[in-house]
Each structure stands twice: as structure tokens, then as C-alpha cells.
Design a protein that fits this description.
This protein has about 240 residues and is α+β, with helices and mostly antiparallel strands. The protein has 4 domains: about 5-40, no CATH class; about 45-80, no CATH class; about 85-120, no CATH class; about 160-240, no CATH class. The protein is built from 10 helices and 8 strands. The protein has helices at about 35-40, 60-65, 75-80, 110-115, 120, 140-145, 165-175, 190, 215-220, 225-240; strands at about 5-10, 15-20, 45-50, 55-60, 90-95, 105, 195-200, 210-215. The strands form 4 sheets. A two-stranded antiparallel ribbon has the order 1-2. About 5% of the residues are buried.
Length: about 240
């Protein structure tokens, strides 16, 4: 057959011979769809994990935006265990910026612009933008409610818990976990409230103790994003500990 064009693949270097005029034959650079996929993929950046030292790859865009330091959630957890808890950081008192004359406790080292946000919790005149508003009377609330919300999962949060998920089971899990959040390691005494009991696989009907774990409110809230990652992460943690 007559050869129309010869070129070397820009990915693997293999010589490609075109015998038929196909779409883009004049500017073709890849010998196969596999090489084309590699060529069109996002550029990667190689980094070394801060904890284990293993090499891992991330998208260049993510590297420029977040500068990741860990190859996995497990390494991130190990690093977080060694950090100073927020409630143990040194603090000082400053005069409230609203003019009431009362003192507000803040963390030492924070700039005054950041400290002004604490005034909102102290000033009785401060108002949350969506307080008292409903979907019927405000379009902003409707825009982020129900199916319009990025965290919408088909309304599973409205499903009822089974009778087995009762107070005695929750207390058993808290006692098993030493009344300590299994993510940030803060105790109930430090937090000032009882731990939330989280279903690892997000199935409210699966009340196996191996599918339950104690978390503080902050860590429990984080599990509503990237659910698949958290499932694998907490399953491995429970299996290692119990």
C-alpha cells in the first residue's frame, strides 16, 4: 500500500506509517490511543512524602494550589498526631473591637486582622446571613439547598437509624475508643461534649462495632467530603486497632 506519511510517536518513539488519510493525519503525533491519552493527560509533579519519604505524583495544578506534603491519609494522620492541639496553644486577652470594653481571648501570634473575626461571636448585634431564612423566601438559600448542594447524596441523611443504634451501643463505642476522637486525639473532657459515632461505610443499617468509630464534631464534619477515601482510611484504622 502507498505510504502517505511517516512519523515517530512523541511518547514511545515508535515509528508509525499512515496509509490512509484520516482526520488529523497531517499533524498526528501518537501511534495509538494509549499514547494519545498519556500525551493529553495533565502534567504531573513528583514529590517525596514528608513522613515516609516515598515518592508520589500529583497534578501540577494541585501542587501549585495546595502544595501537598503526604502520599496518603495515613501519613497525614501520623504527622497530625505530633502537632500541638489548638486548645493547648498560648493565649492572651485583648479588648473587644466592638467598643464594649470587655476582653476577648485569642491565640498568641495571630495578626489583629484575623483576631477581629472573634468579635462576631462576642458582639450580640452580629447576625448570620441565612438566619431565619427559608427556601421559600430567599433565592440564596434555595440555590444551595437539596439537590442543588454539591454534597447531595440522594437524601440519605433523612433515612432513620435502626433500633440497634441506641444509647448503649454508642456508649460502648465511646468506651472502646477511650472517649477520644480517633482522628485528632482530643478527649471528651477537652472537647466538652460526647463524641459522635460515625458509620464508616455510611450505611445506617450496618451497626457492626467494626463499622463504627468515635469522632469529634469537627472531624465528623470532614467525612462528608471525599467519602470513598474516608471509608478505606477508617476501615484500615479500625482493623489495625481492634
Amino acid at each position: 500500500m502507498k505510504t502517505i506519511r511517516k512519523f515517530n510517536c512523541s511518547i514511545c518513539g515508535e515509528e508509525k506509517i499512515l496509509t490512509v488519510k484520516v482526520r488529523g493525519w497531517k499533524t498526528a503525533k501518537y501511534c495509538s490511543k494509549k499514547c494519545m491519552g498519556i500525551g493529553y493527560s495533565r502534567p504531573k509533579v513528583k514529590l517525596n512524602c514528608k513522613i515516609c519519604g516515598n515518592e508520589f505524583e500529583v497534578n501540577k495544578a494541585r501542587f501549585e494550589k495546595k502544595n501537598p506534603k503526604y502520599c496518603s491519609r495515613k501519613c497525614e494522620y501520623v504527622d497530625r498526631k505530633g502537632r500541638v492541639a489548638h486548645n493547648k496553644l498560648p493565649r492572651k486577652n485583648i479588648v473587644c473591637a466592638c467598643g464594649c470594653g470587655q476582653n476577648v481571648e485569642i491565640v498568641v501570634g495571630r495578626i489583629e486582622d484575623v483576631n477581629k473575626r472573634f468579635v462576631l461571636g462576642h458582639n450580640s448585634k452580629a447576625r448570620v446571613w441565612n438566619k431565619g431564612l427559608t427556601q421559600e423566601i430567599d433565592e440564596r438559600v434555595k440555590k444551595f439547598s437539596g439537590k442543588n448542594n454539591g454534597c447531595w447524596s440522594g437524601g440519605v441523611s433523612f433515612e432513620p437509624y435502626t433500633p440497634e443504634f441506641n444509647r448503649s451501643l454508642k456508649n460502648f463505642i465511646r468506651k472502646r475508643d477511650n472517649h477520644t476522637c480517633q482522628e485528632c486525639k482530643h478527649t471528651e473532657e477537652q472537647l466538652g461534649y460526647k463524641l459522635c459515632i460515625h458509620h464508616i461505610d455510611y450505611n445506617k443499617k450496618n451497626n457492626d462495632p467494626k463499622n463504627l468509630i468515635g469522632l469529634c464534631r469537627s472531624c465528623h464534619g470532614q467525612t462528608q467530603f471525599n467519602r470513598n477515601d474516608w471509608v478505606d482510611y477508617y476501615k484500615e484504622k479500625v482493623l489495625c486497632q481492634y
